[in-house]
Design a protein that fits this description.
Layout: E1 3-14, H1 53-65, E2 73-74, E3 76-80, E4 90-94, E5 103-109, E6 112-125, E7 129-135, E8 138-142, E9 149-155, H2 162-178, E10 191-201, E11 211-216, H3 219-238, E12 246-251, E13 256-262, E14 272-273, E15 280-281, H4 284-292, H5 298-309, H6 313-319, H7 323-336, H8 340-358, H9 369-380, H10 386-397, H11 403-410, H12 418-431, H13 433-440, H14 445-457, H15 464-475
């Protein structure tokens, strides 16, 4: 039997606010345990939650970015369950009336585009954290994270492979950083995915029993977890077993998932509207104010790069893969004022290669956009060749100064004097008579070898186009 995997994602996106969603306590990461747990966080009697308006603005931003419905009226609910890191005994979330409704995000795998439907995105507070092993034989509770604002983004079960799920998660990860609502730091838990996986016979419409893989904070682990879970479910069914709905954890050391507990249903949480919070009302004016503050979105910028600068779809996609890359490119091009393709090639080529080698984000590049633009100007006006430009760039990366000063100090200025180049070529022809005869006998490779000898004789400084042109004339 041929099987089909069905996948949906729930992503907990930590919102980039200075304070918690229902109190003024700090959300700064890394503070000593329980130093940011205020009266609201630890649920002292008589305290009341007050909604953080910046968290609401973040939710509206996301809704606008995925062309979603934004509810004019949404309601906060109490999700009741017991856990040691939840002092209130309930989590404030949204249930029947979320702030963001149906939207969509388009992913791309190779040449194929696919629309992933977003069911909803709702505001909620994070819980605290259990800390194991800080004291031998004991566990502790850190409530610093309790009350941190989250936007939980839920998809329809539209993905049919681990690759599609990872592509969606990466696209969402890029988007929430692009619009400035999340720092995207997966190691610190700012972006965590729960993945619902089920399998069914291919060609059927009925959904299988799903198991939810919790708290995946790595795209690599997500891929591994889905692939293992898919194989496990198929093997279980083919062996005559049944799938029980459950919450499972992924162990990256073994590459396996294991059941943690049976999966709860919504009625297990006894949701009811929170009596301490009024309904959230969002007006058209509220949406317009957020819309006016929105950055240009990746798809719109990609289309503009193609139309305005004549870049290919591939180049435009690469340059808009992340906000920091797009900002670096546009700043470089603005300072350069020349051909966009040349700037794009260097951002995607030389700069990207050095960043990968040093494991740096482009925002930490030691070569600033204005400095790269200085190098591009010297390439464009033929002061240096493309080959010499790589040497200059290496020196710039090492902190040796601006392009002009490096070119001057190292004597790298390109030779464009026809007479000087002609003299170099005469010497090469005289020293390589056999190679000249090979070329005249019809061996085209000999011409390239002669060009190489001329460039070597000029120490790479001769203008390559002039070398080619003069050499062709000399060889008749």
């Amino acid at each position: 039997m041929e099987w089909e995997v069905v996948i949906g994602l729930e992503t907990h996106t930590q919102l980039k606010t200075n304070s918690k969603i229902f109190s003024g306590a700090s959300t700064t990461y890394g503070a000593a345990p329980n130093t940011q747990a205020c009266e609201v966080s630890i649920a002292l009697p008589g305290v009341l939650p007050v909604l953080n308006q910046e968290a609401v603005r973040c939710a509206i931003k996301f809704g606008l970015a995925v062309n979603a419905e934004i509810a004019p009226r949404s309601v906060f609910a109490r999700k009741n369950y017991f856990y040691p890191d939840l002092p209130k005994g309930y989590q404030i979330s949204q249930y029947e009336l979320p702030v963001v409704g149906k939207g969509a995000l388009t992913i791309q795998l190779g040449d194929t585009e696919k629309v992933i439907r977003i069911t909803r995105a709702h505001l909620e507070e994070d819980a605290g954290k259990s800390v194991h092993g800080a004291v031998e034989g004991m566990s502790g509770i850190d409530l610093n994270r309790a009350g941190t604002p989250l936007l939980e983004i839920v998809t329809e079960p539209d993905m049919r492979s681990a690759a599609e799920a990872v592509a969606y998660a990466k696209k969402l990860h890029e988007l929430v950083q692009w619009i400035g609502i999340c720092d995207g730091n997966m190691q610190e838990g700012s972006f965590r995915c729960d993945v619902n996986v089920s399998v069914r016979p291919k060609g059927t419409d009925t959904l299988g029993t799903r198991r939810e893989i919790k708290n995946l904070n790595s795209f690599k682990f997500m891929q591994q977890a889905i692939e293992y879970e898919t194989r496990w479910q198929i093997e279980t069914l083919e062996d005559g077993g049944t799938i029980q709905q459950a919450t499972v954890l992924f162990n990256p050391d073994t590459g396996e998932t294991r059941a943690m507990r049976s999966k709860e249903e919504a009625n297990d949480y006894r949701y009811f509207p929170d009596p301490d919070l009024l309904p959230l009302v969002i007006s058209e004016a509220d949406k317009d104010a957020v819309r006016a503050d929105m950055p240009e979105l990746p798809q719109a910028m990609k289309a503009r790069f193609e139309a305005e600068f004549g870049l290919s779809a591939y180049d435009a996609s690469a340059l808009t893969a992340a906000r920091a890359i797009a900002d670096y490119f546009t700043a470089t091009l603005a300072a350069f004022g020349g051909e966009a393709k040349l700037a794009a090639n260097w951002v995607m080529g030389g700069v990207a290669a050095k960043l990968n080698e040093a494991d740096l984000d482009i925002s930490a590049s030691p070569v600033l956009p204005a400095q790269l633009a200085g190098l591009l100007k010297r390439i464009a006006d033929n002061t240096i060749s493309s080959k010499i430009a790589k040497e200059v760039f290496e020196a710039m990366w090492a902190g040796e100064g601006e392009a002009d000063s490096i070119i001057d100090s190292k004597g790298l200025k390109q030779v464009t004097d026809s007479g000087a180049i002609e003299a170099i070529i005469d010497g090469v022809l005289a020293a390589n008579a056999a190679m000249v005869e090979e070329y005249r006998a019809g061996k085209e490779k000999a011409f390239n070898a002669l060009v190489g000898q001329a460039m070597k004789a000029s120490k790479g400084k001769a203008n390559p186009a002039q070398v080619n042109e003069i050499l062709k004339k000399k060889l008749g």
